[in-house]
Design goal:
The chain has about 150 residues and is of the alpha/beta class. The chain has 4 helices and 3 strands, in the order βαβαβαα.
Length: about 150
């Protein structure tokens, strides 16, 4: 999933504490955290290479635990399409420093509330991520060539 926006559900924000003005403003602009030009280029690369993808909103939450069925349902209700334990803090810090951001999330388990008996495991997450690594490498390699 090409990330077009995020919802920050981390218990702590990486910018709390003393602000170093030389790195960025106390309250960075976050309305367009993910660069639309890079998203467009990545979509074209994926389409040109027949790589199935979607775009969506990523919900960042803390770990190290997988989500409960109620949490998956909550994330859908608040507008999330996928969730994970990384990406959001890094993007917040990068935007604080006025860096251009682009992110993709590999969807490793579906967390369907209608199938609460389907269990996710860390092993499954790793296996799915490994299986799509060549496609991710291709997208990022081509994207870097086109910047």
């Amino acid at each position: 999933m090409i990330i077009k926006d995020h919802i920050n559900k981390f218990p702590d924000n990486p910018l709390r504490g003393e602000n170093l003005d030389k790195l960025g403003p106390r309250f960075p602009e976050m309305s367009e955290s993910y660069d639309k030009k890079l998203i467009s280029k990545a979509k074209k690369i994926a389409n040109d290479n027949k790589i199935k993808f979607q775009t969506g909103v990523y919900v960042g939450s803390s770990g190290p635990t997988l989500e409960t069925p109620a949490e998956y349902n909550y994330f859908r209700i608040i507008g999330g399409d996928a969730t994970g334990m990384s990406t959001v803090p890094e993007v917040i810090v990068a935007r604080h420093m006025n860096l251009t951001c682009f992110a993709i999330s590999v969807i490793t388990n579906l967390g369907k509330p209608e199938n609460p008996d389907e269990k996710a495991s860390h092993e499954e997450v790793k296996n799915v991520a490994e299986s799509v690594e060549p496609k991710m490498t291709l997208i990022f390699s081509e994207l870097i060539k086109n910047i």
